[in-house]
UniProtKB/TrEMBL annotation:
Pyridoxal 5'-phosphate binds at residues 118-119, 259, 323-324. Transmembrane segments: none annotated. GO terms for cellular component: cytoplasm. It catalyses: (8S)-8-amino-7-oxononanoate + S-adenosyl-L-methionine = S-adenosyl-4-methylsulfanyl-2-oxobutanoate + (7R,8S)-7,8-diammoniononanoate. The gene is bioA. GO terms for molecular function: adenosylmethionine-8-amino-7-oxononanoate transaminase activity; pyridoxal phosphate binding. PROSITE patterns: AA_TRANSFER_CLASS_3. Substrate binds at residues 58, 151, 288, 322, 417. This is Adenosylmethionine-8-amino-7-oxononanoate aminotransferase. Homodimer. Its main location: cytoplasm. Pathway: Cofactor biosynthesis; biotin biosynthesis; 7,8-diaminononanoate from 8-amino-7-oxononanoate (SAM route): step 1/1. Its EC number is 2.6.1.62. It is an enzyme of class 2 (transferase).
Amino acid sequence: MEKNLKRELLDKDRAYVWHPFTQMKDYANRDHVLIEKAEGLFLYDADGRRYYDTVSSWWCNLHGHGHPRIKAAIRDQLDAFDHVMFSGLTHAPGIELAEQLVRLTPEGLTRVFYSDNGSTAVEVALKMSFQYWQHTGRTEKTTFAYLDGSYHGDTLGAVSVGGVDRYHALFRPLLFHGHRLPAPDLRQARTAGADGEREVAARALAAVRELFEQKGDTIAGLIVEPMLQGAGGMIMTPSAYLQGVRELCSRYGVHLIADEVATGFGRTGVMFACEHAGVSPDILCLSKGLTAGVMPLAATLCREELYAAFYDDDAAKTFFHGHSFTGNPVACAVALASLRLFEEERVLERAQATIAALADALRGLARLPHVAHVRQLGLVAAFDLYLDAERRQPFPPERRIGAAMYEAGFEEGLILRPLGDTLYYWLPLCAKPDDVRDIAARTERALRRVLS
Ligand SMILES: Cc1ncc(COP(=O)(O)O)c(C=O)c1O
């Protein structure tokens, strides 16, 4: 990009734009990276510098940027028609996508309710669950249970079931009351391997059981991020926990709401993270990868029993919820194109070699000083940085190690976006083993620079 144009844009960025999750004062004397092009696994800035998109553009992108089949789906749908309302009208992309989602998601989910982002997918789930109990005479079921460290979005309903104090505590006066449960964080295992997993799951499940025994009659649903709590710090959780909460939710009549906004569509090595545990939720939230990370769209799926409780001659039993862009046809067409790619290009099968290469690369990174708790689930990997990794002594916060790694990442051609002192990759499914090896080598250089 021409230098003057770049300067002009960045000045206007500073003059007019308020970026999300950003302390804008951090940018008082420096610029945001201005992206001019995105192709495959890479983003290019206005100076032509290339960066690996190791976080898949906020955990969204699946098949790489600018995939020709995705672009063609957008063009074709725009040639047919653009946005139309989805209440009182319907359209082929919305219908066909719903059919595919019911086919692909864990068994028992039969109905698809569209919205347009991850937070709204969660809002829909919470309201759907709440209203179900109102319709079925269990009007005392009005609260939700959620986990420590959980993140379900930034709208107030989603924040009410959020467990990351740094983001959520300030808003408590605005939120509805919920029950916060301990997270089955695998880092807390006292023994390695399967025994440690069982122990972590059992401890966290005991808290769920106790809560349900005492208050299950008043709880509408329990919301979880299956297998992997993302924004809370890339907390990986045992499959036995998911199986356990499934069993407890069924026993105590509490909806199990699986938020797969981040984990859905292959990121964890299987299509949906619930599959790792062979578990089917009552309500499932999807977004991000739903459109291969290209268009805003979300879907909340539920069991027929929930849908049936709203299906009535009584208009008051309508689910009064909707968004302007609910079921946007262009987004639905893109989602269908992405699902076709999964099948035709055997995307999940091919990703397995990359997942193995990632495991291998992590073994190398695990040997570096200051690195601990190296963990992986499919194409997601994370590790924590400590001043003294052996004693788990953290860096003093003022060293802002995460922020320093973010900067060092740019120098090494990587978009890294650490969560505090936790560094992670959230790789697109199109990443190849060689890419992973290159990303790990660049990360190692960035680590050495920041930590030496
Ligand atoms: C598990 C989970 N749920 C919900 C959301 C919210 O999605 P959105 O940012 O599209 O509102 C996120 C976003 O990161 C997420 O990770």
